Amino acid sequence: MPRNLLLIGGGHSHVEVVRRWGLAPEPGVNVTLVSPDRHTPYSGMLPGYIAGHYGFDDCHIDLDALCAQAGVTRISTSAGEIDFAARIAHCVELPDQPFDILSIDTGSTPLLTNVPGADRYGIAVKPVAQFLEHWAHLREAAQTAPRPLHVILIGAGAAGVEVILAMKYRIDSDKGHAVFTLIGDGPSILGAHPRGVQQRFMSILQDQQIAVRLDTAVERVSAGTLFLRGGETLAFDEVVWVTGAAAPAWPRASGLQTDTAGFIAVDKHLQSLSHPGVFAAGDIASMIDAPRPKSGVYAVRQGPPLAENLRQALRGETLLEYHPQARALALISAGERYAVASYGPLALSGAWVWHWKNRIDNAFMRRYRVAG
Ligand SMILES: Cc1cc2nc3c(=O)[nH]c(=O)nc-3n(C[C@H](O)[C@H](O)[C@H](O)COP(=O)(O)OP(=O)(O)OC[C@H]3O[C@@H](n4cnc5c(N)ncnc54)[C@H](O)[C@@H]3O)c2cc1C
């Protein structure tokens, strides 16, 4: 009887699992990837796509092509709750998928549930495909509106700062009309980065005439109005949410052990603490002994050890340990072809940093491009 390896989610770790599977398939194993989107966006290049430096194919991995090349079946839907007794994953509008070994890499989405009206009157940066559709409309509206649109972006971490600068750059290049406000609930932008990086970006935001509101908590949203803690209101035309990561409800509802935020608790083998034979990687996973920020860098680094351990698990052999790096290099783009490198206490900036980042990002994408 062939055995089934089921991969839920086409995220940064699973694309590497699929690629490696294609290089060395395991006899007697059927591999299936469940993902609602044919194209996986590479987050490192997403701000560059918004800014117009890249085309769609430059920064999206074609899962159909990658899976076809690797002999992996791709099913175009979302998986939800898992029935561990029957060893099946429920899928939206498609038959349940059986598994012997299961791996989950479904990412995270901005946390919106704690702000009434947030999802109704704003758009989250994830799922990325929906955001990009909305962004195309926003660009059009900024060209035809009788007055400048007020675009508010909520979330002053690296992704939020990159996205607002990229949007501003693109709308200016389009000769559109918009004014921008960045809102963060902490005392500084880029709270996880050194002061030098924060200061560099504060001055870039100022040069770009992007208003920055710190220590500002949004309590509620209605059509066209943000209600801030303390009673103040802010009028807007568009609100974009790039706030901290939230987990879906289904892993916990399925009985998987999670951390307090609902992310799947895994050990140093990337294996579930509660369910042997179930693995998780990327944002959806929480390495209990070595917690790390939700960042694509870690999702990418987990790809090779995850691929190896899925193979070991299928063979019934000893799993390998994965020890994540203590700190990661972040290359944060600034709208135009200019970026800032942040590593430990170090901050370096310039057009050369953007070109360095561009080389790294393109090399990553080349690994997953399938010759037509
Ligand atoms: C604008 C932006 C810029 C960023 N830039 C960087 C950066 O430069 N460097 C960095 O390290 N990090 C960056 N990040 C963070 C980075 O995006 C995430 O940490 C990274 O995407 C996590 O990868 P992942 O593999 O966990 O999931 P994802 O890349 O989010 O992929 C998850 C996939 O699973 C699919 N999926 C979701 N739910 C289901 C389901 N129920 N069933 C089946 N499939 C499902 C989704 O469609 C998606 O394709 C950025 C984030 C944003 C928003």
Q: Give the CATH topology of the largest domain.
A: FAD/NAD(P)-binding domain
Relative strand content: 25-35%
- Widest beta sheet: strand line-up: 5-2-1-9-21
Q: Helical residue percent?
A: 25-40%
Characterize the overall form: globular
Main sheet summary? 5 strands, parallel
The CATH homologous superfamily of the largest domain is named FAD/NAD(P)-binding domain
Question: How big is the Rg?
Answer: 21 Å
Number of strands: 25
Q: What is the domain total for the residues? A: 2
State the distance separating the first and last CA atoms.
Answer: 34 Å
Structural class: alpha/beta
- The CATH architecture assignment of the largest domain turns out to be 3-Layer(bba) Sandwich
**CATH class type of the largest domain:** Alpha Beta
Task: Give the names of the bound compounds.
Answer: flavin-adenine dinucleotide
Compute the average pLDDT. 96
Ranges with pLDDT <50 over ≥5 residues?
Answer: none
Number of helices: 10
